[in-house]
Amino acid sequence: MNETLELLKNRRSFRDFDEEYVLPKEELQEILDAARQAPSWMNGQFYSIIVLQDKEIRKQLVEWNPGNPQILKSSVFLIFVADLYRTKMVSAAYESAYQIEESVESLLVATTDAALALENAVIAAESLDLGSVVVGSIRKHGKEISRLLNLPEMTVPLFGLSIGKPIVEMNVKPRLPQAAVIHFEHYQPYTYELIEQYDQTMELFGEARETKRWSQKFSDYFAADATMVTDQLLKMQGLLK
Asked: Which residues are in the Nitroreductase domain (predicted)?
């Protein structure tokens, strides 16, 4: 197996970091450069990355996200933002209409671009013997974070990435059976037994932070009343009618 494949197949999330470790500027720049070279639809690059090293700003983020103390304890925290403000400037320069709120298409493209940049950053960090963990819960406080970071209209914070030197080794988490995820030529029906098998696999894996079976966790999640926080933020930022 070549080094790249080995790196990808052994990726893990790390949440315990050496708080005294200072990430060299050169390595941070390598990670950011790798993120910026991610694939992008039409080379639009519809995202921005906010680099947070300031302790006070990160303390505020932890106050809003107490379940993610690694935001402060890691060497750096990156926030990936769907950014359609840049192309609004382009439309203004050409004096053309900018009707992105008419459809979810532009937001979908921007989210995808940001996610691809995020994954490049994750793998770049791993290649430097660093650890990372993606933090999606920042969306719960997207309004506050947008104000804190002075995000302009047509932008929305999507997810964060803590990067640092791990102090606790983690095992590679099992994934769903291939037959439940990979389909050749067309979508292949499968039985619920595959999900039950995965429940058993994850119970044997025994991750301490998981308090429910995999299936129960998502049954509960999608049964709960929908939160409108993200919808409200998108409307506030001019991305949704």
From this structure: 8-165
